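Q: Given only this backbone (328 positions), what sequence would you predict?
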């Protein structure tokens, strides 16, 4: 169930920190522990299930840093804030509604404004003060659409409000097709530049990293087809050559990130990586709105994370109220 470099070592560090309490950190044990969460629109329900379980295991405050891309930033935020149920309910009660996803609303298929202007701050209020006040640092992947630069935003250092940064990280080209300002830069979803910020975590000195991936171990990203390149260039890039190149080469960055996560590339000495991949019913489409499919994927992934930590998995499930609630 685990892939990477000395993956069990990462789990052991996490368990040790939990046993020693919330005061255990990089200074006390000499290790820098990170959690990396992959997104992928509705596909991120799997990593949401994993983050939910980590929170239930009392691990919200053991990580020194949390890194996330795309929808993974929502999972990361509600995880750090200690609101996992509220966070995962957004998928079932809001992201499955026509207010959010509407393939016939071609100018804005995914209404990111609805989620981050209405749901996250008001209907399912994220505890922003807690996210910014905890010792854990949250890093969010975005791309500057004017320069093509992909980078991670330290949410404790930016001048931009947290929810606006989260919105920028979910501004998916073509599906949302707008930019969101972060410190004066026009930013979009970082996924095509940083599939998930594992390399960035290692560059920041993290020694032990748990990765919640939303793709199977066998996944190999393919070069965008001529049709997809044409759609991207026509709808989003519109003559922006640097963004066209970023999109055209996204498969290369995806392959490199996944090879690193799976232990196929050399890593710095004394670094451990534990990667959880999807399998079976956890592999769903990014635009899936069937609640039962989403529920099964989240539960399956969550149970896998429980087994990784040696916990009873068979009896665990998500509240069935998530299936019964009315769409937002």
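A: Predicted residues:
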């Amino acid at each position: 169930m685990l892939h990477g470099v000395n993956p069990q070592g990462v789990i052991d560090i996490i368990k040790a920190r939990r046993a020693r309490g919330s005061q255990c950190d990089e200074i006390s044990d000499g290790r820098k522990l990170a959690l990396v969460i992959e997104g992928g629109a509705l596909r991120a329900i799997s990593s949401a299930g994993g983050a939910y379980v980590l929170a239930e295991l009392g691990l919200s405050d053991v990580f020194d840093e949390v890194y996330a891309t795309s929808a993974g930033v929502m999972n990361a935020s509600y995880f750090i804030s200690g609101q996992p149920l509220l966070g995962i309910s957004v998928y079932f009660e809001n992201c499955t509604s026509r207010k959010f996803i509407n393939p016939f609303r071609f100018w804005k298929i995914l209404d990111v404004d609805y989620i981050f202007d209405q749901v996250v701050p008001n209907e399912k209020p994220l505890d922003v003060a807690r996210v910014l006040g905890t010792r854990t640092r949250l890093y969010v992947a975005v791309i500057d659409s004017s320069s093509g630069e992909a980078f991670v935003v330290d949410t404790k250092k930016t001048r931009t409000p947290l929810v606006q940064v989260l919105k920028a990280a979910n501004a998916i080209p073509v599906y949302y097709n707008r930019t969101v300002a972060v410190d004066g830069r026009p930013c979009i979803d970082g996924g095509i530049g940083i599939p998930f910020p594992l390399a960035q975590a290692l560059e920041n000195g993290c020694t032990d990293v748990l990765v919640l991936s939303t793709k199977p171990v066998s996944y190999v990203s393919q070069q965008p087809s001529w049709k997809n390149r044409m759609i991207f260039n026509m709808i989003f890039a519109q003559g922006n050559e640097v963004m066209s190149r970023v999109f055209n080469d996204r498969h290369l960055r995806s392959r490199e990130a996944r090879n690193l996560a799976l232990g196929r590339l050399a890593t710095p000495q004394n670094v451990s990586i534990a990667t959880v991949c999807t399998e079976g019913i956890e592999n769903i489409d990014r635009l899936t709105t069937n609640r039962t499919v989403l529920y099964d994927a989240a539960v399956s992934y969550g149970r896998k994370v429980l087994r990784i930590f040696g916990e009873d998995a068979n009896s665990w499930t998500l509240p069935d109220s998530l299936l019964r609630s009315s769409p937002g």
